[in-house]
Amino acid sequence: MSEQATPLWEVFIRARNGMSHRHAGSVHAADAEMALQAARDVYTRRGEGLSIWVVPSAAIIANDPDEKGEMFEPTASKIYRHPTFYELPDEVANM
Amino acid sequence: MYTQALNNPAVEAGVEDEEKLAAFQARIDREEKIEPNDWMPAAYRKTLVRQISQHAHSEVVGMLPEGNWVTRAPSLKRKAILLAKIQDEGGHGLYLYSAAETLGVSREELVDQLLTGKAKYSSIFNYPTLNWADVGAVGWLVDGAAIMNQIPLCRCSFGPYSRAMIRICKEESFHQRQGYDLLVAMMKGTAEQQEMVQDAVNRLWWPALMMFGPSDKDSKHSAASMKWKIKRFTNDELRQKFVDATVPQAKVLGISLPDIDLKLNEETGHWEHGEPDWDEFYNTIQGNGICNKQRMKDRIKAHEDGAWVREAAQAYAAKQAAKKSAA
């Protein structure tokens, strides 16, 4: 194949106002404008979105899943960050 | 189903780190989803690339028998519905290609595998759509069979495949209903239209049953896929579910199904059915079905005819990028 690979883009869609954009999937397109068009056709055929972001997949930096221990483990021991850590006096019904 | 060629003997059982393998299986057993960057056995990766890409190819080739009727749809309403359905099939192919690509294979490689005949697609799309009722029968029976297979795939252990299947299943229900609706309308028509429905069902019933793949006693691929929770039910279990769901719908429609062995087993509550012609099935998978050559010819032509568009889009993008960096 002499053809050059068409770049990959990640697609994020806001379903309704008041919600954040969520990852919907990916598309291949030569440029940003075509990526937006393709994302519209592929991911919003039934009114799934009000706003679309496309990002070149190569621009996304991800953590290494093999190092997720060091990355996320420290939070597990900090149970005092959760409200349930604290016992309220019986006289206080709600807080 | 859309991945029948997977029922051929398993290929490799490479050497894997026992400890990693056990940890992986434990994750699967806990119903944890596996994501693309997680460690996975090479055979799991390979099975998924094959299964997901074959599934994607089937969606894309599946546009052809239906496309055959776009210009001859009997009303604007039916034409709009058919176009929307075909567009969905293209979309399903794209969701699935994307899922396969997360496993480290490129879109270009996958398309190449289809066009060179290295990858398979479902046998069902090698049957012709001869009359308008075929469009309805494809929706009712073929998409109906696909749904039976795809609902359990929504719980597949591989995250991207499972997410693609959830999207697809939401859309697939429209496909089956529009097909049934088309047939109901024809059954309210003239005697000739009713005969067209019966004719379409007579031709597509057995190929639809074959979509679930060979009988369990001849299917060599199920064990590993079941253990890895890629597959949740065997071919015969899914085929039985489909028959049980479809027989009452045929009755409502007012047509007969072309199987003299079809009868309700009062004890089990299941409809017993005859065996599909497995020689015809294997022959079609091998590339000798009625439309195999036409389908491949059409796909290759579409790909080659589109080459200048892809090239022009990339040349334009390169030019714009150069302008931007110069400014």
Structural description of this entry:
The complex is a heterodimer of chains A (95) and B (327). Chain A contains two helices and three strands. Chain A is of the alpha+beta class. Chain A is elongated and about 70 Å long. In chain B, α4 runs antiparallel to α7. Helix content of chain B is 65%, strand content 1%. Chain B has helices at 18-29, 42-61, 63-67, 76-101, 107-115, 132-153, 159-187, 191-210, 222-227, 235-253, 278-288, 292-305, 307-326, and strands spanning 263-264, 271-272. The longest helix of chain B has 29 residues, at 159-187. The N and C termini of chain B lie far apart (54 Å). Chain A binds chain B through residues 1, 3-6, 8, 25-31, 34, 41-42, 45-46, 62, 64-66, and chain B through 35, 37-39, 84, 87-88, 91, 94-95, 98, 101, 106-108, 112, 163-164, 167, 171, 307, 310-311, 313-314, 316-317, 320-321. Chain A: Pfam families: PaaB (PF06243). Chain A: This is 1,2-phenylacetyl-CoA epoxidase, subunit B. Chain A: It comes from Pseudovibrio axinellae. Chain A: InterPro entries: PaaB, PaaB_sf.
Helix content of chain B: 55-70%
Query: Which band does the percent of strand residues of chain A land in?
Result: 15-25%
Main pleated-sheet profile of chain A:
3 strands, antiparallel
- Oligomerization state: heterodimer
N-to-C CA distance of chain A: 66 Å
Report the mean per-residue pLDDT of chain A as an integer: 90
Query: What gyration radius of chain B follows from the Cα positions, in whole Å?
Result: 21 Å
Based on secondary structure, the structural category of chain A is alpha+beta
| CATH class descriptor of chain A | Alpha Beta
Q: Please state the average pLDDT score of chain B.
A: 93
- Low-confidence runs of at least 5 consecutive residues of chain A: none
Adjacency order of strands in the biggest sheet of chain A: 2-1-3
Instruction: State the distance separating the first and last CA atoms of chain B.
Output: 54 Å
Fraction of residues in β-strands of chain B: under 5%
Greatest interface by residues involved: A-B, 22 and 29 residues
| Total number of helices of chain B | 13
What would CATH call the architecture of chain A? Roll
Number of E strands of chain A: 3
Protein name (chain A): 1,2-phenylacetyl-CoA epoxidase, subunit B
Pfam family, one (chain A): PaaB
InterPro entries (chain A): PaaB (IPR009359), PaaB_sf (IPR038693)
